[in-house]
Specification:
Blueprint: H1 2-13, H2 23-37, H3 53-60, H4 65-71, E1 74-87, E2 90-96, E3 101-107, H5 108-111, H6 113-119, E4 127-136, E5 142-153, H7 169-174, H8 176-182, H9 184-205, E6 210-211, E7 217-218, E8 230-233, E9 238-242, H10 247-255, E10 260-268, E11 280-289, H11 293-312, E12 316-319, E13 322-325, E14 331-334, H12 335-342, H13 353-363, H14 372-384, E15 392-395, E16 407-408, E17 411-415, E18 417-422, E19 425-432, H15 437-452, H16 463-470, E20 476-482, H17 483-491
Length: about 500
């Protein structure tokens, strides 16, 4: 008896949340109850369909009215109700599949009095499957003349009002499902992102790379200069870290003889939020043996040019007030030249290391720069990158901010490395990978000293990786490309949150 009482209480509370319901929500719950009383399956398992909304619009919207009527095209199509306009014993409504809208016309004399009365229990937001034939109205709008329908799901909350509630950033990011329902352009953004990733994968597969997976939890976080997220493994009794980059594992695979590898991966960095940063983000990292960072530059130009032509059909893309051109070749600048010409600082200031350290500390006190090279990197980030709009490779930054890269051939104080900047954002980062195990160990130890001085983003010592290098890492070019930022450029979005389905947000 007790179990029955509990189940009844659970069943009753399923549609009665603790928060106070408004009049519309109460009315929708009442309609759901009436549908149940009429024997309607409230949660059907499946629905058959002949077409999607988008498929119908694509195939039949251009047909002349007379030709469409001659075809007597029958359709069964599901979708979400977005508008309802009642006119006595007839109703026009629109359904959507997230890509296109389709008008439906239901008349009592066609669908039957019982069905038409049942339809009165439907609301905007409900999901329905419609059966009928296609025709065009006097105004030329493609429409389904509904002969019958099937209830699929009830929206127990009213949808946001189009021009006010839905524009609220909080609603759009916290309740992405509402954003997708109400804004077709948002659906298109994420379809574009998916196409970008799919074609990126195709590009590397066709060139002999193999896709791999490496650990998400690391005993020693490595592969980038960043602060990690820390967790604890109960069974092993050890601290673990969410990965900040897969680099060291991918290079272990190059040592093992997999000479071309890539991974489309999630990385986690314990940092702040802004229009370009989310603590959880997606990158592609790829490594090619017997290559260097010059080869990576050539590949990157070809990759992004190919993606723009394949995904968007053009190699010039609008971004804000700019037109970004992916036409080759791209500009290449030395790091120091870019600092002097684009930072707005007098060249003489860079001769005073103490002054530069003080300026960097004031610009980014949380980073606690302890070396001249790291200070220059902070100044570049604050003053230079925003001025680089067209795709530009910035070459040979200071060696101390590149602990996994070879030294540049012409200057041991610089790294054989490039960063690609587009639209004021760093989009890619590549090295001629350091292959000398003794030198790598020395640099790790140097980084450890910087960590002791308070630099939380210095690289950890990874002796297992050093041992892997001792088995022989051939000359290798490696690169990471930020997929989120690249999607921002392709979709013409100013915020990284607009291209991440579920960005991390502060609790309310």
């Amino acid at each position: 008896m007790g179990r029955n009482d509990d189940s009844q209480k659970q069943g009753k509370s399923r549609l009665e949340p603790e928060t106070k319901l408004g009049d519309q929500e109460l009315a929708r719950r009442d309609k759901l109850q009436k549908l149940a009383e009429r024997g309607v399956d409230l949660f059907p398992h499946k629905v058959e369909r002949t077409h999607s909304v988008a498929g119908i619009v694509a195939e039949f919207s251009t047909l002349p009215k007379e030709e469409l009527e001659e075809k007597t095209q029958a359709v069964t199509v599901p979708g979400r109700i977005l508008t309802i306009r009642k006119m006595g014993r007839a109703t026009f409504f629109h359904i959507s599949d997230g890509r296109s809208r389709l008008q439906v016309y239901i008349r009592e004399e066609v669908a039957g009095a019982g069905n038409y009365e049942l339809f009165s229990l439907f609301d905007i937001g409900d999901v329905i499957s419609v059966r009928g034939t296609l025709f065009k109205t006097r105004t030329g709008e493609l429409t389904v003349l509904c002969t019958s329908f099937t209830f699929l799901a009830k929206s127990l909350h009213p949808l946001p009002e189009k021009w006010h509630g839905l524009q609220d950033i909080e609603i759009r990011y916290r309740k992405r499902y509402l954003d997708l329902i109400m804004n077709p352009e948002v659906v298109q953004t994420f379809r574009l992102r998916s196409a970008l990733v799919a074609n990126m994968r195709k590009y590397f597969d066709e060139r002999g790379y193999i896709e791999v997976e490496t650990p998400m939890m690391h005993a020693i976080p490595g592969g980038a200069l960043a602060r990690p997220f820390k967790t604890f493994h109960n069974a092993l009794g050890i601290d673990l870290y969410l990965r900040i980059a897969p680099e060291l594992y991918l290079k272990r695979l190059i040592v093992g003889g997999l000479d071309r590898v890539y991974e489309i991966n999630r990385n986690f960095r314990n940092e702040g939020f802004d229009s370009e940063h989310n603590p959880e983000f997606t990158m592609i990292e790829f490594y090619q043996a017997y290559s260097d960072y010059n080869d990576m530059m050539d590949l990157t130009e070809d990759l992004l040019n190919t993606l723009s032509l394949t995904v968007l059909g053009r190699d010039e893309l609008p971004f804000g007030e700019h037109m970004i051109s992916f036409k080759r070749p791209w500009k290449r600048m030395k790091f120091k030249d870019a600092l002097i010409s684009l930072s707005g600082l007098a060249p003489s200031r860079f001769e005073d290391e103490k002054n530069i350290l003080g300026l960097a500390a004031s610009l980014a006190p949380e980073k606690k720069p302890t070396t001249y090279g790291k200070a220059l990197d902070i100044i570049f980030d604050k003053y230079v990158k925003e001025n680089i709009i067209q795709p530009t490779f910035i070459l040979n930054p200071p060696r101390e901010v590149s602990p996994l890269a070879k030294a540049a051939r012409d200057n041991p104080g610089e790294a054989a490395r490039f960063e690609l900047f587009i639209a004021g954002m760093e989009v890619a980062n590549a090295f001629s990978e350091l292959t000398d195990p003794a030198e790598q160990k020395r640099i790790f130890e140097q980084q450890a000293e910087e960590k002791k001085k308070g630099d939380d983003e210095s690289h950890w010592i990874d002796l297992d990786y050093v041992e892997a290098l001792e088995y022989g890492l051939p000359p290798t070019g490696g690169e990471g490309i930020g997929i989120d930022r690249l999607a921002m450029i392709f979709a013409n979005k100013r915020s990284i949150r607009d291209v991440i389905l579920f960005p991390l947000l502060k609790p309310r």
